Automatic annotation (TrEMBL):
Domain Transcription regulator PadR N-terminal residues, every copy: 6-76
Pfam family of the protein (one): PadR
InterPro entries in the cross-refs: Metal_resp_DNA-bind_regulator, Tscrpt_reg_PadR_N, WH-like_DNA-bd_sf, WH_DNA-bd_sf
Name this protein carries in UniProt: PadR family transcriptional regulator
Lineage: Bacteria, Bacillati, Actinomycetota, Actinomycetes, Micrococcales
PANTHER family: PADR-FAMILY TRANSCRIPTIONAL REGULATOR, TRANSCRIPTIONAL REGULATOR, PADR FAMILY
Amino acid sequence: MLDAAVLAVVADADGYGYDVVRRLRSSGLDDVADASVYGTLRRLYAAGALTSYVVPSDEGPHRKYYGINAQGRAMLDVQRKEWGSFARTVTSLLDPTEGAAR
């Protein structure tokens, strides 16, 4: 589900690798590893879900920013639906009274 989280963060605003890591952590994914996020960004880009562009930096090396495109938005929509279905199923398994209320 890291793919969905990364796509959601980038859908909110373009970002470079560490910026995406920081935003995921500030959203509550405290234990997300830098390498996992960087790998996910590269994989999503290679799959055609993200665009990228380089922004020069006065304080160090340039930064590669990632943005979501139409294919990435479609992937995110699918993953949101899959996550919702999964979450409802697990909720009903863990709390049978929740499942009976529907």
